[in-house]
């Protein structure tokens, strides 16, 4: 294998990776991405073998951090009626991108991140979304989710489920902010039911039935 100098890495190898990451981070579901996964995979492998893992990891983290900071600013500018849906899109788009980005950097993960840093690339990248997007928006997002929950069909059930499950994946302790909401989508996050609360459960069920009927659904 030819020697790859740091200048080669910066001028030839990283720009290829940078471009591919850009496309993966901004693709929509079902989009065709005109990149060669084999070429990118090979590029990462060569850089790892030539001892450029530390620089490559640093560049990757910086690249994705900058992207997430832009995503966060765009969400901040969203009106309340679009905020939930746009957060859902941002979360889904990022998690979808990780399904491609993490495997492409598998050699760096195995021979640098796991070995020298005692961490995992996927965990690191999920943490970036938590810190640069979710943490900055959770206190605006949660009241809107609770309001949507009390107004049937304001948002689709799939959107609500995606966001709640995503937030739980990012930081399980956020369950404490809205236990009843999380319990609808995450098993066993609430204590077991007790007999003394059966009447309350029945009242909640009757309220839901009334809301369904008011919105045109029959029993």
UniProtKB/TrEMBL annotation:
Cullin N-terminal domain residues: 14-170
InterPro entries linked: CACUL1, Cullin_N, Cullin_repeat-like_dom_sf
Top-rank taxon, per record: Eukaryota
Gene Ontology molecular function terms on file: protein kinase binding; ubiquitin protein ligase binding
GO terms classed as biological process: G1/S transition of mitotic cell cycle; ubiquitin-dependent protein catabolic process
Pfam families in UniProt: Cullin
Protein keywords: Cell cycle
UniProt record similarity statement: Belongs to the cullin family.
Self-association and partners: Interacts with CDK2.
Function: Cell cycle associated protein capable of promoting cell proliferation through the activation of CDK2 at the G1/S phase transition.
Name of the protein in question: CDK2-associated and cullin domain-containing protein 1
Source organism per UniProt: Pachyramphus minor
Lineage of the species this protein comes from: Eukaryota, Metazoa, Chordata, Craniata, Vertebrata
């Amino acid at each position: 294998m030819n020697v790859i100098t740091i200048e080669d890495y910066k001028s030839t190898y990283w720009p290829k990776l940078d471009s591919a990451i850009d496309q993966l981070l901004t693709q929509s579901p079902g989009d065709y991405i005109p990149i060669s996964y084999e070429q990118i995979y090979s590029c990462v492998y060569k850089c790892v073998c030539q001892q450029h893992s530390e620089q490559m990891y640093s560049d990757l983290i910086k690249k994705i951090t900058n992207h997430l900071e832009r995503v966060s600013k765009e969400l901040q500018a969203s009106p309340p009626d679009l905020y939930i849906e746009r957060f859902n899109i941002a979360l889904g788009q990022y998690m979808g991108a990780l399904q491609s980005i993490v495997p492409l950097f598998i050699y760096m993960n195995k021979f640098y991140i796991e070995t020298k840093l005692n961490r995992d690339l996927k965990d690191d990248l999920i943490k970036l979304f938590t810190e640069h997007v979710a943490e900055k928006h959770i206190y605006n997002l949660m009241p809107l989710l609770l309001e949507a929950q009390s107004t049937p069909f304001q948002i689709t059930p799939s959107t609500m489920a995606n966001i709640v499950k995503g937030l739980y994946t990012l930081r399980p302790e956020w369950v404490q902010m809205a236990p009843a909401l999380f319990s609808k989508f995450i098993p066993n996050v609430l204590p077991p039911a007790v007999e003394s609360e059966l009447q309350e459960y029945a009242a909640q069920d009757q309220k839901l039935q009334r809301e369904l009927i008011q919105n045109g659904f029959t029993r």
